[in-house]
Amino acid sequence: MILCNDVDLFKWEPKLFSTSGLAERYICRGSGGVISGTEFNASDNIFLLSGVEPGGVLYVWNTLAGVSLCCEIVSIGLGGNLVISIVRADDSCGAVPVGSFTNLEYAVVSYTPLIEEVSYSLLAKYGLIGRESEISNIRQLRQSCVFAVLSACYAGAAMADEQSELYWSKSHYYRKLFDEARCGFEVLLDVNGDDQPDESIAGNSIIMERM
Length: 211
What we know:
This protein has four helices and eight strands. The strands form two sheets. A six-stranded antiparallel barrel has the order 1-2-5-4-3-6. It has a two-stranded antiparallel ribbon with strand order 7-8. The model has no long low-confidence stretch (mean pLDDT 86). It is an alpha+beta fold. Helix 2 crosses helix 3 and helix 3 runs antiparallel to helix 4 (165-184). The protein is globular, with a radius of gyration of 19 Å.
């Protein structure tokens, strides 16, 4: 189970998906893309075979036309078709048309491997592995995951960049937000499936085992 997705990261740090030196986590890229409203088509790709998933981020650009933007991936169609949207507050909102553009370079940028590792670490820390279906208030865990991933992303960027002061600053900033969020959240668990919380785990708790 992953606790957040790429769009959740984008809401805090859009440049992770478009800035040279940061947005190097392409899972696919190509050219000749066309956007019409909420539809993106690229004849040179089959997105279902590329690991593209809803909640991902599509980065498109055309340097000559001055186009550079990121879109939320809402759903995956057949072949080179995606349903996309301007990034929404949450997935209960309908897709918002992006506009009309042609002859686009494009890339799907994903931090999912890092998200998965951080998600596992958080779930394991609070004894939630195997109990994911019982969690009834995922949002606080999601926010903690977002902050931890962003801190790790910028720490990695700092170590790869000689001019790393800004990246280290961002990494420390998101680490502070992570610590504050983790200490403040309370995970509610619905153990018997009656839609009522039966158990809670505080984010600042420490699980101890007898050796």
